[in-house]
Structures are given as C-alpha cells and as structure tokens.
C-alpha cells in the first residue's frame, strides 16, 4: 500500500485546526492508508505569523478568554468526530507547571496565564502559548500511520506533476510530491494600491512619513518622532495596535485612579500626537463585560429552520435588505426586548406577555416601531440598528474641536453603557446577532441571494455592522483612549475622513464630513489591514498560480453591475481552487480570509456551532476520502512514476 501525502501551506490556527480535523476522521476514512502531512510555514508551527510568542505584551486579543476555543463541542454540526477540549480560560485554569515549563513559558508569562479570568482579554502572547499547546496535543494524539513533517520555510509554487502536486519550497531544490494541497496562509500582504503608492511617493519627495496598510505589530514606526502630528486613517484593531506601540511601547504608562476604574496616562515624552479618522468617525462599540440579568431568550424565534426553508423555496432570488433583514431585525429585537422587559420591567409600560403577543403579530418594521415607542419609556432603550451603526450621521459641527468633544462624550457614554448591567439588553442583542449570523451564512451560501446583495449587503454593510457592534475593543482599551485624549496625545477627526496631499505646504491633509476644518501632519499611517487582492498579492505562490491562470479573483456580476472582491475564487464544499478558465482543481484547496468563502471570526466561540469548525471538517473529510481512494493497493508503484515525471520537469518552478 503506497503512502498518501498532503501539504498544508500555513501552519497558524487555521492550519492547526484543519490538522486536528484530519486526525479526528483519519481512523474512519483512511482505511489503513499511511499518510504523510507536510506543514509549511516560515513562522512557528501552531501559532503562525500573527500569534508569535514575541508579541509586545501590550497587544491584546479582542475576545474574552472564555470565548476562545480550538476544540469542537456537541453544538458543531459536522460528520467528523467531536473531540472536546478546554477553552482558553479553562486551559489557563487547568494547565500545570510542568506543561508550561515544557512549552518554554517564562515565569512572568506563566503568572499572566494563571491570572486569567473568564472575562479577561488575554494578551496575544498568552494566546500564542494556548495555540502552541493545542498544536502539540494534536501531534501527540495523531493516529497510527500519520506522520507530520514541518518545513520552516515558504512555499513558492505548486505545479501539476502527473496526477500529483509538486510543492516548491524556498531554499530547497527538490519539490515535495503530494496528492493534495491546502492553502491556509491567513491574512496576506498585498502590494500597495495606487493611492498608497501616491502617498509613499509624496512622503519621499517631501521628507515625510507614510506607513501603508499592514500588520501593525510588524511595521517600522521608528520614523514617527516624538510630538510629531500623525494622521491615522482607520479606527479598528490596527489603530488600537498602533496606539499601544506608540504610547506604552515607547515607555509611557497608564495609572489607575482611586476608584479602581478611571485611568490617567503618564507620558514618556516620546509619543506623537495621533489624529484619527475613519468612515464612522468613532471606534467600534465596547465589548460587554456583564452577564444577562434574566434567562436567555429562546432562539431562534423568527429566523428558524422553517423560515429559512421558506426563503430558500422562493422562485425568485433573495435580496438581503428586502427579504432577510426584516427577519434579522425582528429576531434580534425579540432577544433584546425579552431581556429588557424581564430584567428591567420598570422601564417599560407593558408586561412581557402582552408585548410579546403584539410583537409576534407585527407585520412589518413600522408596526414594531409603533409598538416599541408605546411600550418603552426611554428612547435610549430602543434597539435601532441604523442609529447604532452611524452615530455621526447627519451631524455637522462648527469645528474639529466641537467634533472632538462630541466623540469624547460618545466614547464615555458607550463605555458606561456597555459596562453597566442595567443595559443588559445590549448583551441579549449580541447573543442574537451571533445566532442570526449562522442563519445568514446558511442563506448566503445557498446561492439563493442575488450576487450584488451578497457582496454589498451580506458581506459589506451587514458584516461591517456586526463587527462594529459585536467585535469592538475591551472597555479598558477605550478608557485608555480617553486617558490619551486627556493627555493631549489623541485627537478625533470625524466621519468620512479622507486624506490628500498638499505639495505647497508639504504635508498630508485630512478632512471630514463632520466639520469644515483641516488637519495637517507630516506623517500618515493607514491603520488597517489591507483588503485581500489576488492581483496585488505579495504571496509568491499565489502570484505564480495567478500568472499561469491557475487561480483567479472572484468577480461577481449581477446584470449590469459587477464587482471584483479581490479574493481567491474557491468552489464546492471543500473549497477547491478555480482556474481562470473555470476549471475546478480536484487536488487544490484554500481556506481563510483571502478566499471567496471565508469563515467568520479569527477564533471560534465555544458552543456556537462555529462555521470554521464545520468548514475545516468538510475539507478534512473530503481530503481523506480522496486520499484513501487514490492509495488503494491497485496504485502500488504509482509513486515511482510520479517521481520520474517530476524529475523530467526539472523539479523547479
């Protein structure tokens, strides 16, 4: 019996999760066929590029310790075996000193791990240890007949050799000959777009500083001088990392007030002054740090299986805003008001039973709005997606200073609300959004949503709102931002911020729709992760496949409308690569944010039937079935023929 071989390009969390799913189903599906798995990544296997152990200690995760897991549980609907294990928090509580020593964890980091609570936002270096432990556990539990070989280098090409795949590695003459390849490189660097190139050229011509989009923790910020004015374009996670590295990373420190909550910042004198603007003009909503005050609303209610099947059974294609959003609004509103009426009845004018009866009977959003207006005493207790999503919409201030003061008030109010259990209905809405996210994904993946609505509404507007409401920074981060503002080191620019160049003044110029003023600065940081772009990818492997027409960007058309998402097109349940001629490659797969079918979230939450687990399980079982079929005893000797074919091609890209 010949040995099967698989290459996984990218050995970060996604690659590790896929490896775990392969190991889980191998005893059932391989039929005794031995399997060699090549893991290819220039960074440490198991953690990959982003979750390196040498991350700055000020860089945190954006999730609570209890909300992060690498293990499947009984909520995951997949064919493969469920292999439960601890969440990050459960692991931190149970891991022993000997294991931490074996993992090479220094005492200061071990103490950090021991101090975790379920509602701690861990540092990324803590997550790095958890990922390393998970990866080693997967290796230790591999079924007999499976071997894993790690290649700490970069895959630079993949070529067809007979009916196998030749994977070429940097620094190695001979390719790896495998039956199948999975690309799991994660967030990929891209070459600058036209706008970024213009910024870079302007900076070079005038002695200025420009930092293009990218992984902030890896970027060179040394040219940003103390007290220098810096425009930061983008208000998400990359901005948060930028602030950490330019403040605490330069020797400043936050001091907690006597109340144990408020903060003040003591500068080192090496910090710049950061002027931040974005499309919304405000940071993402604070994470919630309390628990529900009433039992969780039973969900799904309106967006259940019957409703989904009814949608999918329609003759016409669906439009998200017309057909799906009303059900989503009603579902999330149901959970929100269930908590409000049951946990805080003094703020309502009706009992829950009567409100629920009328809410269920409401035929459209206008009827719901009338019911809510008559039943909820304070407008601040009304769940309004449009108001939440665009807090500066329709507001125009006389100056940037007025706008700045307004945003400061907005952030203070947001932190106060999201840390006060009196507003626990916000948490109920958060839980409902998680439930509806899976339902929306199911409908979108069915092919029954119009292409334009899928791109602009589901993957665009709705996903943006979901991340803004549900995936914001910890409250402590926003308190730090306010402390930096009080220290004069952060200024807010407003909504719809744009940046131009001014050759006469030799500076970058930021303008906002929120006020008439300009902000001038000798430094510009595009504080965001670059959007996927196969046409501009810096990944050598994908670039070569692209140039030969063996991968293609996803171009979505809908009548006269079209859009290029920049993502690598994949097809089928196992996410096979699609070539420029439309052919689907049976032995090449890709998963992650750079593909046309990304799973949601960087990590999976326990007990949420996480999409990533389901996706990885499908790919793993497809691979195993194909490998078992290829390596039946009748294929004995085929490896020699393939090796001869590889030799004939020279073994080089």
Task: Report on the architecture of this protein.
It is a single chain. By secondary structure, the protein is an alpha/beta fold. It is 38% helix and 16% strand. The strands form six sheets. Strands 3-2-1-7-22-21-20 form a seven-stranded mixed β-sheet, with helices on one face. Strands 8-17-9-12-13 form a five-stranded parallel β-sheet. Strands 4-5-6 form a three-stranded antiparallel β-sheet. The chain starts with a strand and ends in a 5-residue tail after the last helix. The C terminus is likely disordered.
Classify the helix fraction into a percent range.
25-40%
Q: Give Rg in angstroms.
A: 26 Å
Strand order of the largest sheet: 3-2-1-7-22-21-20
Overall pLDDT: 94
Largest sheet: 7 strands, mixed
Please state the structural category.
Answer: alpha/beta
Strands, count: 22
How is the secondary structure organized here?
Layout (H helix, E strand, L loop, with lengths): L3 E6 L3 H17 L5 E6 L47 H7 L2 H6 L4 H8 L9 H17 L5 E6 L3 E7 L2 E6 L6 E3 L1 E4 L10 H13 L2 E3 L17 E5 L3 H10 L6 E4 L6 E4 L6 E5 L27 H8 L7 H24 L8 H10 L3 H11 L9 H5 L10 H19 L6 H21 L5 H20 L4 H12 L3 E5 L3 E5 L4 E5 L6 E4 L1 E3 L14 H8 L5 E6 L2 E8 L1 E2 L4 E3 L5 E7 L20 H20 L7 H11 L5
Parallel strand pairs: 1-2, 1-7, 2-3, 7-22, 8-17, 9-12, 9-17, 12-13
Antiparallel strand pairs: 4-5, 5-6, 10-11, 14-15, 15-16, 18-19, 20-21, 21-22
């Amino acid at each position: 019996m010949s040995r099967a071989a698989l290459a996984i390009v990218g050995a970060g969390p996604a690659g590790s999760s896929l490896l775990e799913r392969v190991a889980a189903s191998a005893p059932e599906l391989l039929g005794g066929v031995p399997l060699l798995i090549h893991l290819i990544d220039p960074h440490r296997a198991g953690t990959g590029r982003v979750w390196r152990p040498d991350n700055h200690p000020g860089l945190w995760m954006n999730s609570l310790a209890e909300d992060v897991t690498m293990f499947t549980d009984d909520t995951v609907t997949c064919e493969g075996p469920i292999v439960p294990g601890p969440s990050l928090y459960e692991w931190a509580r149970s891991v022993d000193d000997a294991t931490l020593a074996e993992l090479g964890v220094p005492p200061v980091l071990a103490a950090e791990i021991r101090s975790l609570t379920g509602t701690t936002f861990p540092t990324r270096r803590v997550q790095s240890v958890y990922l390393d432990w998970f990866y080693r556990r997967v290796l230790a539990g591999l079924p007999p007949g499976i071997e894993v070989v790690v290649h700490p280098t970069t895959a630079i090409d993949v070529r067809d050799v007979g009916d196998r795949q030749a994977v070429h590695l940097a620094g190695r003459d001979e390719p790896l000959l495998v039956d199948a390849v999975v690309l799991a490189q994660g967030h990929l660097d891209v070459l600058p777009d036209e706008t970024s190139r213009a910024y870079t050229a302007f900076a070079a011509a005038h002695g200025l500083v420009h930092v293009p989009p990218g992984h902030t923790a890896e970027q060179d910020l040394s040219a940003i001088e103390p007290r220098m004015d810096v425009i930061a374009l983008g208000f998400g996670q990359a901005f948060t990392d930028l602030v950490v590295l330019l403040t605490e990373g330069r020797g400043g420190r936050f001091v907690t007030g006597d109340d144990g909550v408020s903060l003040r910042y003591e500068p080192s004198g090496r910090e710049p002054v950061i002027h931040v603007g974005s499309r919304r003009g405000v940071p993402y909503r604070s994470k919630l740090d309390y628990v529900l005050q009433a039992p969780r609303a039973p969900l799904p209610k309106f967006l259940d299986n019957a409703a989904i099947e009814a949608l999918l059974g329609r003759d016409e294609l669906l439009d998200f805003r017309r057909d799906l959003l009303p059900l989503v609004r009603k579902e999330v509103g149901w959970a929100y008001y269930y908590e409000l009426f049951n946990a805080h009845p003094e703020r309502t004018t009706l009992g829950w039973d009567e409100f629920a009866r009328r809410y269920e009977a409401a035929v459209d959003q206008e009827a719901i709005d009338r019911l809510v207006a008559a039943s909820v005493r304070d407008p601040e207790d009304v769940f309004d997606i449009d108001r939440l999503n665009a807090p500066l919409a329709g507001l125009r201030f006389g100056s940037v200073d007025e706008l700045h003061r307004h945003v400061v008030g907005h952030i203070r109010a947001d932190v106060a609300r999201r840390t006060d259990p009196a507003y626990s209905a916000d948490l109920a809405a958060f839980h409902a959004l998680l439930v509806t996210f899976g339902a929306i994904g199911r409908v979108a993946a069915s092919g029954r949503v119009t292409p334009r609505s899928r791109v602009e509404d589901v993957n665009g507007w709705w996903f943006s709102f979901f991340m803004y409401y549900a995936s914001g920074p910890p409250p402590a981060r926003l308190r730090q931002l306010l402390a930096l503002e009080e220290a004069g080191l952060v200024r807010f620019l407003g909504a719809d911020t744009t940046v131009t160049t001014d050759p006469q003044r030799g500076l970058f110029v930021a303008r906002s729709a929120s006020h008439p003023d300009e902000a001038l600065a000798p430094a510009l940081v595009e504080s965001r992760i670059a959007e996927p772009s196969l046409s501009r990818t810096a990944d050598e492997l994908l670039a070569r496949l692209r140039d030969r027409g063996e991968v293609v960007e996803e171009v979505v058309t809908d009548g006269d409308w079209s859009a290029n998402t920049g993502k690598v097109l994949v097809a089928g349940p196992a996410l096979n690569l699609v070539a420029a001629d439309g052919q689907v490659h049976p032995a090449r797969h890709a998963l992650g944010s750079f593909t046309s079918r990304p799973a949601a979230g960087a990590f999976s939450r326990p007990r949420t039937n996480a999409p990533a687990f389901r996706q990885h399980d499908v790919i793993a079982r497809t691979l195993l079935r194909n490998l078992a079929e290829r390596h039946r005893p009748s294929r004995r000797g085929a490896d020699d023929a393939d090796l001869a074919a590889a030799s004939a091609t020279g073994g080089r890209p």
